[in-house]
Specification:
Distance between the termini: 33 Å
Shape: globular
Strand content: 25-35%
Order of helices and strands: EEEHEE
Number of strands: 5
Oligomer: single chain
Helix content: 10-25%
Strand order of the largest sheet: 3-4-5
Number of helices: 1
């Protein structure tokens, strides 16, 4: 469980609820999964821009979530960057 006192930043979401953010080293992130209902194109573009600005993000792989047509599950496909 996250100790809220350890948050580096507190922001508000669209409903004005607090969001507690903690900085983590880029090197511990290996993959990012985009949710099924997320705006994939916007996220990909934003991530590409972030990678251009920060070389420490170059190793991170991006995946899209795809609902399975036959089973109650989600499949993942790597997005080439």
């Amino acid at each position: 469980m996250f100790n809220l006192e350890l948050a580096d930043t507190i922001k508000k979401d669209t409903t004005q609820k607090d969001i507690y953010l903690k900085k983590i080293p880029e090197e511990i992130i290996s993959k990012i999964y985009i949710g099924c209902r997320a705006n994939k194109n916007d996220i990909i573009e934003e991530f590409k821009q972030a990678r251009e600005k920060n070389p420490k993000l170059k190793h991170i792989k991006l995946f899209e979530s795809i609902p399975d047509d036959n089973k109650f599950k989600v499949n993942y496909r790597e997005i080439p960057l």
